[in-house]
Structures are given as C-alpha cells and as structure tokens.
C-alpha cells in the first residue's frame, strides 16, 4: 500500500473519531504519521496540531448547527490553557524524541482506558473556578507539549468541573481543543521542523471529510460502542509505540 493511500485512510479514521467523540483524532494522528508515513516524532506532533485545528473547527461547525456547543463554558475553559499551551509547545522542541514517544504512548494508554470505562459522569454539579482553571491549564499544557488536542480529557472535565451536560460536552470540547491547538502551534512557529505536505494535505483532506461523517455516525451508533472501539484501538497504539521506544 502506497504512502498516499495510507495517508488517506489514516486521516479518515482520525477525522471520524474526532467528529463522533470530540476526542481521539490527534492521538491517532501522531502514531499514524510516525509509523505509517515516516514523520519524525517532532514533525508528527507539529503536523498533528495542524490536523487537529482544521478538523476540530470543521466538526465544531456541525455541532454548533445542532446547538450542542456551550460557548461560554468552552471559552472560559480554553482561556485557562492558553499560556500553558504556548509554553509547553515551545519547550517540547528541546525534549528528546524518544522521551516524546514514551510520553505519548503513556497518554494513549490513558486515553484508551478512559474510553473503555462504562461509567457516565454526572450531568450536574457546582462549578469551581479554581478547579476549572486548573483543569484548563493542565489540558493546555498537554496539548502544547505532546501535540494532541486533549479531547479525551476535555469531555469529562467539562462535565464534572463546569457542569456541562454530556449531550453538549463533545461539541464544547471541540471549541476547547481548537483554541488550545492553535496556541500550541503558534508556540512551535520558530522550531525547525520539516513537514511533508505531499502526505499531510491528503491526510488532512480525508480527516475533514471524516469529521463530518463522524458527527453523523454519532447520531446512529451508541456512544458506548464508539468509545469501546476507539478505546481498544488506542490501547493497541500505546502498546506498539511503547514497544518501539523501548526496543
């Protein structure tokens, strides 16, 4: 299978994940860029931010039309992560690639385990300004450092910290993810990373189309089923990346 075909398929899978769950797109994008398309870890995390921004905005438009975005809560949450995302994005360029790979594998494992959990967070609660700022800052740091959107962390945080109903958490998380990824990418603007646009652009194109399909898929397939499928995929990715980094 040619690299171009692999880029098209991998982009579609990442886009569907992001559109359906508000999460999982970037955490699938990075290993796909590294192991299928030959990007270095540094280039893959930077390219992932580009993919995350475009696909998240695309999926966000679809969710906004459906009225499932809590704009005030999302903007407040994202604002707390702006500075951490920028700082972490600048620092990531100084970290050895092997370390980035191991950390990313650990994060993928965490995301997979979270998605496989069957419990549903409560849809109400008291909003704590301190907890909201802490959660937003932590998510921003993860986004900047590892080049992931952090949707798998944003969704439960929005529900439990900002009392956003689960029905609106996915759409709102896309707003948070878009803002954090944009800031993180700006923080990497001066890093000397080569991006293969011949592969990145086809990947991005099918990711955008997949994001629209993911939104429609979310209305036809139960959220629990989608989470279990992507959770299993993420655990497999984590094991493969961890083994590669150690061996």
From TrEMBL:
Entry keywords, A to Z: Cell membrane, Membrane, Transmembrane, Transmembrane helix
UniProt key word Heme: no
Keyword Oxidoreductase: no
Bilayer-crossing regions: 32-61, 73-92, 98-116, 137-159, 165-186, 193-212, 224-246
Membrane topology value: Multi-pass membrane protein
Family under the similarity heading: Belongs to the 4-toluene sulfonate uptake permease (TSUP) (TC 2.A.102) family.
Protein name: Probable membrane transporter protein
Organism: Streptomyces salinarius
């Amino acid at each position: 299978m040619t690299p171009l075909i692999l880029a098209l398929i991998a982009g579609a899978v990442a886009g569907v994940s992001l559109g359906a769950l508000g999460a999982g797109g970037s955490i699938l994008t990075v290993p796909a860029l590294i192991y299928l398309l030959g990007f270095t870890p540094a280039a893959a995390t930077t390219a992932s931010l580009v993919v995350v921004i475009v696909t998240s905005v695309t999926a966000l438009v679809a969710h906004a039309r459906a009225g499932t975005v809590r704009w005030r809560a999302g903007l407040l949450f994202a604002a707390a992560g702006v500075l951490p995302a920028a700082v972490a994005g600048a620092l990531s360029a100084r970290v050895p690639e092997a370390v980035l790979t191991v950390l990313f594998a650990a994060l993928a494992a965490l995301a997979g385990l979270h998605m496989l959990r069957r419990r549903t967070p409560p849809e109400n609660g008291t909003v704590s300004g301190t907890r909201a700022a802490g959660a937003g800052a932590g998510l921003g740091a993860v986004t900047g450092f590892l080049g992931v959107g952090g949707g798998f962390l944003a969704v439960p945080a929005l529900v439990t910290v900002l009392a956003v109903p689960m029905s609106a958490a996915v759409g709102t998380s896309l707003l948070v993810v878009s803002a954090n990824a944009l800031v993180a990418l700006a923080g990497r603007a001066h890093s000397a990373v080569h991006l293969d646009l011949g592969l990145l652009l086809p990947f991005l194109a099918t990711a955008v189309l997949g994001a629209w399909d993911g939104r429609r898929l979310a209305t036809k397939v139960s959220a629990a089923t989608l989470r279990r499928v992507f959770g299993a995929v993420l655990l497999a990715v984590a094991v493969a990346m961890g083994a590669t980094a150690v061996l």
